[in-house]
Amino acid sequence: MVNLLTQSARYVLAILMALYAMKCFTVFRKKYDYDRGSVYTTQNVLMFMIHFICYLLIYLHTEDIAVIVFYLAQVVLFATTLIVYGIFYRRASRLLINNMCFLMMIGFMMLTRLDDADSPAIRQFFIAVAAVVISLFIPVIIEKGAFLKKLGIAYGILGVLLIISVYIPGVGVERYGATGWIQIGPIGLQPSELAKIVFVFFVAAMLYNKPSFKRIVVVTACAAAFVLILVVSRDLGAALIFFMVYIVMLFIASGKARYVVLGLAGASAAAAVAYKLFTHVQTRVYAWLHPWGDMQNRTYQISQSLFAIGTGGWFGLGLYNGIPDTIPVGASDFIFAAIVEEMGALFGICLLLVYISCFIMFINISLQITDTFYKLLSIGLSVAYGVQVILCVGGVVKFIPHTGVTLPLISYGGSSILATIIVFAVIQGLYLLKQREVYGVEKKTWRSGK
């Protein structure tokens, strides 16, 4: 009976997921927010249906009462988030709120599937709760934060302190070939995730006011220091994100394409040097070029990922019918492969469409903002988000070499989910500022939507 329900649920979940992804783009056809209300309500219904079906299957397979408790706790979190945002920020982008909650739902579901509601999924949940609480205050800070554009040097210092904290004796730890984590008692943190946000604020604050050539040289030198520290730490995925963010922001701020050309040339040279210096980079490039060449050792990770994706087919094997546990780091870097194996390629494609709809919304907001600082801020965060998704999924499907970055809001990693929720909150604050400009209403009323 359980197996029959699991097999039937594959098709139901694929259909519901396709409908949700379709609604993510339907909203762009509506010119005004009040025309989109029914679309957002439909999204809410679909996301909670998908969430319920997945946890029902998990409970039927495990018969663990803790799964039900964990599911109900999530329902309270997501319902509260939607309600609170609706009360305090009625002009906020409901698409971003819905997608943020939905992606976390998929993440918690998959972590529960992989860990049977054990400590990793629970730790991720509590970090998400704290992050959501923090995110409720960020739009207000963005609204009242005219001083934010004056803290350029402070951002730079804070960012450097964050990424060099991994070298503090007894604090920094090495994982997966990179020294990119700190451990303080039971609390583990990847500083580069938070430094990524600080870096965007730094570049935006330094370049928003018609930067001179001298200012560009100074900021470029500082940005290079960020990237070099990450390269020395062998956190090459984060280094690539920082680099791409800076190149795009520099181009937007200066309007000169030659900076992009010079940056890409420098990056190519740096990539060649990194390949020569770091054995784990050589291993990842070899695995990318020859995924079946050394399946017992160097290419085991990518080969298992490709096997999982290929085995899943369009509709997946069904929850608990696959073997995602055989994928190394399947709960974090390679969680997309685990999802596709049991939920199907169609589900995975729709999941990517949800990410794309968020990115389109990010860019749409940045294009409509008139203040240069906020425009750069929005574009920088958008690029960081988009590049991270491309690096993660691209590495999993062998489109590019694996870089060791997580899938935003889904992969296991407290630092990653905290940083991504903060990014969504900052973008929400910028969206509210845009709404105030469009509607031309007083601060006391635009937040309430009156």
Provide structural commentary:
By secondary structure, the chain is mainly alpha-helical. 72% of the residues lie in helices and 3% in strands. Strands 1-2-3 form a three-stranded antiparallel beta sheet, with no helix packed on it. A hairpin with a 2-residue loop joins strand 1 and strand 2. Helix 13 runs parallel beside helix 14 and helix 16 runs antiparallel to helix 17.
Rg estimate, integer Å: 22 Å
Task: Give unreliable regions as ranges.
Answer: 441-450
Distance between the termini: 52 Å
Largest sheet: 3 strands, antiparallel
The total beta strand count reads: 3
Return the average pLDDT rounded to an integer.
Answer: 87
- Side by side, the strands of the main sheet go 1-2-3
User: How would you classify the quaternary structure?
Assistant: single chain
The shape is globular
Percent in strands: under 5%
- Helicity, in percent? over 70%
Give a brief rundown of this model.
This protein has 18 helices and three strands. The protein is mainly alpha-helical and 450 residues long.
Topology (elements, then pairings):
Blueprint: H1 2-26, H2 37-62, H3 65-88, H4 94-115, H5 119-135, H6 138-144, H7 152-164, E1 172-175, E2 178-184, E3 187-189, H8 191-207, H9 213-232, H10 236-254, H11 257-277, H12 279-289, H13 300-312, H14 335-343, H15 345-368, H16 372-396, H17 414-439, H18 443-446
Antiparallel strand pairs: 1-2, 2-3
Helix pairs in contact: 1-2, 1-15, 2-3, 2-4, 3-4, 3-5, 4-5, 4-15, 5-17, 6-17, 7-8, 7-9, 8-9, 8-10, 8-16, 8-17, 9-10, 10-11, 10-16, 11-12, 13-14, 14-15, 15-16, 15-17, 16-17
